[in-house]
Every structure is written in C-alpha cells, then in structure tokens.
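Weekly structure sync, notes
Attendees: PL (lead), two postdocs, one rotation student
Agenda item 3: pending single-chain targets
PL asked that the sequence for the first pending target be pasted directly into the notes so everyone works from the same version. It is reproduced below exactly as submitted, 135 residues in total.
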Amino acid sequence: MKDLHKNVEILKQIPALEYVTNIRSRDYRHILADGVPIYNVTNRAEFYSTLGCTLENSGGNPDEYIWNRYSGNDSPISKQCLQIQIFIFLCIASGSFQRKYSNLKKKLLGSCLSQTMDNHDDHCLNCPLHPRDAY
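Predicted structure, written out during the meeting:
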C-alpha cells in the first residue's frame, strides 16, 4: 500500500497530458500539458506506435483508434494509460520534457496503477510501467 501511495504522489507531479488534433488541419497534432501546447507531433507514425496503434489495427484512422482504445465509454485501456503513454513518448521525443521528467519515469517503472491492465494485450505487456514480476 505504501508503494501505491508513493506512485500516486509521483503521478501528481506529471502535468495533465492531452493529444489534440484538428480535422481541418492535417498538420495540427499537438500534445498539451495542463492545457498549454508543448509539443507538435511531426512524426505521427512514431507517436501512434507508442500508443499501440498500427495501420493494421487502426483501420486507417489512428485518431479514432486512440479514442476507442483509451477514451471511449467501452475503452479496454484506461485514460490513465493514455496519459502514461503520452508521457513515455515525450520522454523519448522531447529533450526538454525528458530533462524535466525522466527521473519520474525511472521511479514509475514496473508500477502500473491502471484498473484495466490487460495481460493479453502485447502493447500493455510491453509498457515500461507494467509490473512484469507480479504475473
């Protein structure tokens, strides 16, 4: 229980991350931190891959796939997972974000707090926060 409380406190140090697109602008794909744009997603394939999205499983519409997987009413994965996956992506793709938050990523390794962890989902199993030793 002590570890759970510690991890919740660590997660509170991460800004609220959101991925936003604009259907009217093909190039408008940003990550917001607490409502402020902090990263323009230029390599969409790399970003989508981080979220477990491929051409095969997205049916050609990765934004809809992400919504259905993480945010929709019947989503198999939690919104917290989306936050963490965006966090992991930014720790890799953004030097300034990495410098600011990489110490938190190290503290969270192997400590998923999701209520919807799926041990049959390859993307979930390969997440750095998945507690591999627990299963």
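Discussion points:
- The beta strands are 17-22, 25-33, 36-40.
- The first strand starts at residue 17 and ends at 22.
Action: rotation student to compare against the earlier draft before next sync.
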